[in-house]
Structures are given as C-alpha cells and as structure tokens.
C-alpha cells in the first residue's frame, strides 16, 4: 500500500493489483480493513470498506494519529485472495495542510463528512435489515466492534485462508484474559476443558460465559483447528445459534468465549427431566432448532454433526445449535457437497448416503434433524437403542425407521410422510411449514403379515416364542398390547421393552400426522 495524500482528517491510499491473483475466480473487489493504532488490546474495532477499485480516500480521521491498514483481494464468489501486510499511515497534525489548492481541501472535508454520513446510514439500514439478503451495492461500508464481521452473502470457510490467524482476526473479537474469570469446570471438549465463567469488559455489563480452553502441549495445527471453530461461529448471528463473545489469541493460553447456556446439552437435560414437559414445549424446542438450521442452510453451510448432544438449552428452554468442529461449508450450487477426509461420522444421526459416500449436503442435515426430533420427543432416548453402529447401518439400508416415541402426539409425522420431495433442504423448514419425525415401523411401512415378520423388522425376533406362548399370534392382537402386556410375556430389558412399545405405537399412528406451526 502507498500513501498518495494526507490531511489532518483524511488519508488517500492506493495499492498494486497482482497480475496473478491467488484465487481462481476473477478479483472484482477489495476489502480494506483499518483501525486506530493504540494500546487497547481488550476489544479490537475495525472499519471495513468494500471497494471495486485499487484506491481509496478515507475521511473523518483524527489529526496526528496513526492508523493500521490491511487490504485483501476478494473473488467473485467472495473467496479470499492475496492480502497485504498490516501497514501504518499517519494523518498530519492540525494546521499542516497538503500541497493543494483550497478547493481540493474543501472537497476533502466535504468528502469526509459525506463518507461519515454514508457509514451511519448504511449501519442503520443494516441493523433494520439484518435478516435480509438484499444484494449490496458496488461500494459498501460496515462496522465491526462487538459484533463479528459478516460475509456479504454466504459463509466463508476459514480453512481457505492462507494464514488461519487472519480468519480469526477477521471474524472474532479479541478479549484480554484479565477480563475473564474462570469459575468451575463444566465439561471437556476435544481440545481441552470447558469452564463456566464471567466476562467483564470495562464499560460493559458483566455476563456469564462458557470458556473453551486449549490443553497444554498443543501443536500449532491443534491451535489452528481449535481457533477455526471461533472463525466459524463468528460469522453467524441468530438467536438459535450459539453466540461467540470473543477469543484470546495473543497470549499463551488460547481461549474461545461463548454465551453460557444454563441447562447444558439438550439430550442430557431431557433425560434428567423425562416426562416433565408437555408436547407443546417439546415442539417449541424443535421449532427453535429448525430456525437455527434454516439460518445455517441459508448461509450455504452444512453442519454435519447435528444431534441433541450438540444443542444447548438456556433457562428459557431456548435451544441453540452449537459445536461446529465437524461442520464444513457447502459449495454455492444446488448439488454442493462436502467430502470428509476420513474423520469420524456419527452413524446414528447421519443419512445413509452420507455414510456410504462420505458426502454431506443440506439434505443430510435434514435427516439428522429428523433424528433430533425423535430424540426430543423421546426425552433424550438414544436413537436405535442398544444396536451397534453396524446393526444401525444394516437396518437403515433394509428400510428400518425409528418408530414414533412413546406418548408422542398422534399427528407428529406430517410433511415428509405425505410429500418428502418438499423438504430436500433445511431451508424448506420455514416457520409456517409442517415437519415430521423419521417414518415409523416396519420394513416398507406396510402392515406386516405376521408377528414374527414384525419382530424381525425391529430386530427383536428373539421374542417370537414369547409372543407365541402368550397366544399373541396376529398383528391385531399386537396392536392391543400395552406396556404391562409386553412385560408379562417376558420382555424385561428396558431397551427392548421401549423398542417394542415404540414400534406398536408407530404401527397405530402410521397414517396419522401432526402439523407443527410456529406461532
């Protein structure tokens, strides 16, 4: 970057255009980030300009003040290209005028005031239309202080950055560790322990936070992987997505600080409160999860690890999607997929095509969401009970589907059962759309010809003799059975008892539906 002209309140800069950009698509924009150089490391505030030319005049600056600048090329798809080093330029002192005539000076002052007015107007409009996806103009200004910088249209994979530290700097707020107080360990993550704590930044209200830490002896690769989750979370802003408060990267012990969710993971919370919530409350939880997943899908983002254990719950029973360690970006096309590089796949929550081909799309997130719906209505029951992963894969490929949970409302199997083609992506789950659980009961959804055939379809054929000895030889008799009847014929294991009972309920409700509306 080169300084062209400076005044007490403005700087004019230009930079060279690389003849061979490091991005595949044509460079059509430049992202200029600048901030005042000072000793405040607590919260870093940047101003960001998006330009279509390789020069800029920046006004409304402080006289005799140093500013730090960095410019980065952007491709037509928003992907990052080459970037400059951070460079320092200083405005002139009061009374020191540039060597230009009065008209130029007056024009610069007017230009600075106009730019300030534009910035304020754009900031106001962005606040009013933060959920809108209106296309931006050719030259947009927006601020980032306590809020993270957002991409213009879609999520940007931080792994595409040549230097991962730049991604963290761009999407996350740096917090000084002296403002963080750890209180107690509340869990353990892949990279280290998770603490409940307090964040107290001067001039702001004290808030409870969750603090993810990086265990001692980490490698640089582990540190980058750890912080990449912050680079991902920092791009999202939705009430049903866990909120990133900031990161600590400039000190020895790296940390990720997020909002604190008092009730913890959804699966454990439901198990601890089995039977305590009404169907209306459970459906409200599902609505929140669906809203968060729809937002991620609108950002062209595939979660890949959606499960009740990765949903966090606060005191208001508001559910928020978390854990973006396995998540990946979805390419900007209808057939966009992400192929794993050999990582672990959560079999019980993953669509069969994703398991078979190791490819993930928004459609595979829909499958996972169906399993989450089952978990919620079953109060945290483990999907497929005590079946091994191999048995789960085999059963799914043979068209076995989870039966309706016990005491599930009769109508909770609506949209996919009647029109599966209408829900190919999470984006189809808008607040007034009906949703359903994975389809129920037997091998192909049709009535079974015999009790033994039904038992075999749910992997409970070892109880065929029990049913026969009890005189239950027709499916009509099976449909009349209650929990006590199942126990009385010799089914004692809780997992087996629930599997048989759920399947009977699923058979009864096979053609029933429930429309779930956001009110």
Automatic annotation (TrEMBL):
The chain crosses the membrane at residues 103-125. GO terms for biological process: axon guidance; cell adhesion. Residues 1-94 form the Fibronectin type-III domain. ATP binds at residue 212. Residues 180-433 form the Protein kinase domain. PROSITE patterns: FN3, PROTEIN_KINASE_ATP, PROTEIN_KINASE_DOM, PROTEIN_KINASE_TYR, SAM_DOMAIN. It is a single-pass type I membrane protein. It is found in: Cell membrane. Residues 446-510 form the SAM domain. SUPFAM superfamilies: Fibronectin type III (SSF49265), Protein kinase-like (PK-like) (SSF56112), SAM/Pointed domain (SSF47769). Its EC number is 2.7.10.1. It catalyses: L-tyrosyl-[protein] + ATP = O-phospho-L-tyrosyl-[protein] + ADP + H(+). It is an enzyme of class 2 (transferase). Keywords: ATP-binding, Cell adhesion, Cell membrane, Glycoprotein, Kinase, Membrane, Nucleotide-binding, Phosphoprotein, Receptor, Signal, Transferase, Transmembrane, Transmembrane helix, Tyrosine-protein kinase. One of its GO terms (cellular component) is dendrite. This is receptor protein-tyrosine kinase.
């Amino acid at each position: 970057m080169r300084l062209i002209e400076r005044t007490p309140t403005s700087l004019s800069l230009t930079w060279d255009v690389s003849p061979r950009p490091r991005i595949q698509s044509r460079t059509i924009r430049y992202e200029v980030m600048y901030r005042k150089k000072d000793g405040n490391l607590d919260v870093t505030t940047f101003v960001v300009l998006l330009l279509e030319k390789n020069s800029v005049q920046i006004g409304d600056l402080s006289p005799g003040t140093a500013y730090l600048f960095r410019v980065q090329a952007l491709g037509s798809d928003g992907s990052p290209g080459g970037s400059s080093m951070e460079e320092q330029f200083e405005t002139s002192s009061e009374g020191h005028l540039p060597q230009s005539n009065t008209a130029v000076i007056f024009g610069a002052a007017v230009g600075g005031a106009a730019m300030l007015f534009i910035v304020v107007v754009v900031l106001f409009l962005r606040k009013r239309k933060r959920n809108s996806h209106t296309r931006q103009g050719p030259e947009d200004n927006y601020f980032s202080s306590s809020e993270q910088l957002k991409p213009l249209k879609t999520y940007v994979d931080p792994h595409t950055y040549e230097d991962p530290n730049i991604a963290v700097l761009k999407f996350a707020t740096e917090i000084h560790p002296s403002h963080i107080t750890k209180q107690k360990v509340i869990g353990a993550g892949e990279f280290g322990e998770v603490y409940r704590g307090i964040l107290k930044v001067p001039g702001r209200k004290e808030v409870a936070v969750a603090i993810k830490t990086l265990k001692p002896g980490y490698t640089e690769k582990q540190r980058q992987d750890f912080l990449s989750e912050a680079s991902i979370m920092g791009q999202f802003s939705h009430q049903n997505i866990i909120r990133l408060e900031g990161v600590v990267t400039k000190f020895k012990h790296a940390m990720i600080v997020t909002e604190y969710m008092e009730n913890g993971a959804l699966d454990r919370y439901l198990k601890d409160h089995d039977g305590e919530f009404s169907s209306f409350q459970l459906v409200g939880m599902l609505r929140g999860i669906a809203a968060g997943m729809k937002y991620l899908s609108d950002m062209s983002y595939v979660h890949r690890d959606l499960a009740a254990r990765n949903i966090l719950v606060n005191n208001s029973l508001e559910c928020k999607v978390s854990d973006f360690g396995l998540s990946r970006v979805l390419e900007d096309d209808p057939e966009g997929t992400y192929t794993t590089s050999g990582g672990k796949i959560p079999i019980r929550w993953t669509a069969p095509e994703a398991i078979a081909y190791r490819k993930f799309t928004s459609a595979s997130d829909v499958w996972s969401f169906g399993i989450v719906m089952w978990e919620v209505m079953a109060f945290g029951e483990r999907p497929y009970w005590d079946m091994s992963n191999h048995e789960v894969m085999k059963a799914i490929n043979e068209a076995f589907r989870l039966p309706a949970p016990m005491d599930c409302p009769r109508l909770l199997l609506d949209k996919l059962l009647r029109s599966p083609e209408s829900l190919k992506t999470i984006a189809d789950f808008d607040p007034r759309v009906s949703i359903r659980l994975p389809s129920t009961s037997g091998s192909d959804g049709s009535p079974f010809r015999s009790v033994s055939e039904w038992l075999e379809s749910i992997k409970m054929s070892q109880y065929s003799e029990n049913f026969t000895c009890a005189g239950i030889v027709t499916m009509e008799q099976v449909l009349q059975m209650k929990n006590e009847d199942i126990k009385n014929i010799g089914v004692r294991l809780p997992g087996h008892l629930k599997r048989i009972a759920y399947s009977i309920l699923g058979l009864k409700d096979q053609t029933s539906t429930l429309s779930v509306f956001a009110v």
